[in-house]
Each structure stands twice: as structure tokens, then as C-alpha cells.
Amino acid sequence: MKIIGGPSSQALACRVAAQLNILPTVTNFERFPDNEHYVKILDDVAGDDIVIIQSTTTDSDLIALLQLIDACGAAKSIRVVIPYFGYARQDQIFKAGEAVSARAMAKTIQGVESVWTVNIHKKHTLDHFNCPAKDLDASPLIGKYLSELHLTRPLLVAPDKGVEQMVRKMAQGLDLECDVFDKTRLSGDTVVIQDKKMDIVGRDIILMDDMIATGGTMAESVKLLRSNGAGDIYVACVHPVLTRNAVLRLANAGVKDIIATDTLEKIQSQVSVAPIIADELRKV
């Protein structure tokens, strides 16, 4: 088996390879003068079982993934891990005339044996791939990390009902109490969080979401918790998108720390999803 890391997931690919006691395959990523991508795998992949690990955070990342798949055409098998699958939030038609972008992106992945994602926004997106696709859950890894922080009477909170099931599952695994806010979204980065009675005075709070993009939801939740007497407040997520000034917004709201995985490789990526990916590859 050869592990090939795309440009957006190089560190994660190395960690997966280390879990499997193999070396990652070296690949060159360059740009032509007209800014088009160029990829070259610096090893012979003919007859090998190939695993490509590449998050599709940007349009360019998707292009690089498609090029890597094509470059492995002589391989025995090609499997793809997309830790963060871009465009996943446009998973249905919200307004007339829109594209279902998640479906369009999934259908570009051709000629592979299987696909794995990590905490994809909606599971039904997996049905759009042209091969078997499976979603992996990174929340237990985050839970393990949180359990080692020695927090004071910790309470796990979901910022909205969309991630309530994931948060309640994590809370159950950690034997923690949990609760959920009611959220109304006014725009892409403006939300209103409804105040509610919670037993939070003096307690450390962990706000958990599948992803943090602009930080608007989390910042409003943090302010509400602080105004009601919470202790230290942490925010945790699987995918640290953290666009624009999200980190500053969260710090200004009073967050003690941001905890995330390396599905997107950021400075906040303190938890690696390599173990759950490696476990799946051992089953192949």
C-alpha cells in the first residue's frame, strides 16, 4: 500500500502512513506560469494499492485530487480519503435555480474503489459518489482529548440542533452532561442564540460543532454563556474552517482555547484523525 498526500493534507497523510508503519509517497505540486496545477508522483505506482488523502477545501484542492487520481491510473486499486469535503453544505436546493453542489462535486470523483469522508455535513451526500462511500466519526477522538483537560464540572453544549445527536453521543461516551442552544440564522455569518436556563455557574463549558466557519454561532454562544456565569469556555470542532476573522471573534468573545482536528491543517488542529483512517485501511 502507498499513501499519497495531496497538497492540503500532507501532514495528515504522513500521520496515517506512520500509523501503518510505512513511508508516505513523495509528490511534487507546482504551478504553470498560467497558474494551472501540475502534480507528479515521484514513485512508480503501477500494480500498487494506492490511498490518496486530500481535503477539498478549495476549488484548487479538488483539481489536485482529480489529477492525483488520474496520475495513479496504472495502480492496482485507488482509494480516496477526503477528510474535509468541500461544498458539502449546499446539499439540497434551497432556492429555485441552485445547483446541489455537494452532488456535483461528488460526481467528479471517478475511477476509484471507495471513498471515505470524516463527519461530512449530511450523510445522504455519500449516495452521490460513484463508488462505495463511508463517513468516519472523529468525535470520539475529540472526546478523548477533552477528557484529559481536567475541567471543572464540564458541560458539553451543542450550539444548535443540527449537531445535537453528535454532541449527545460524545457526552454519553464521556459520561458528561450536555445541552443544546436554539439558534436562528439571519445570514451567512449572523445568528441569534435564544437564551435558556442551564446549570452553568462556575462550570467549564465545551461548545462542540462539526465545523466552525465564520465563528458567528460560537461567538454568540460564548457571550451568552459568559453572561450567565460560566467558567472557562472551550470551543471544539472536527473541521476548523475558521475563515476571515473567526479566530479573533472567538478570542474577543472570551474563548479559552479552540480545539480541532487535522481534517484541515491549522494551528488549532490538536487532534489527529489519522487513527480512524488507519483503522479503516487495515480492513482493506
Automatic annotation (TrEMBL):
The keyword Cytoplasm applies. It comes from Methanolapillus millepedarum. NCBIfam families: PRK00934.1, ribP_PPkin. Mg(2+) 2 binds at residue 160. This is Ribose-phosphate pyrophosphokinase. Involved in the biosynthesis of the central metabolite phospho-alpha-D-ribosyl-1-pyrophosphate (PRPP) via the transfer of pyrophosphoryl group from ATP to 1-hydroxyl of ribose-5-phosphate (Rib-5-P). The gene is prs. GO terms for biological process: 5-phosphoribose 1-diphosphate biosynthetic process; purine nucleotide biosynthetic process. GO terms for molecular function: ATP binding; kinase activity; magnesium ion binding; ribose phosphate diphosphokinase activity. Its EC number is 2.7.6.1.
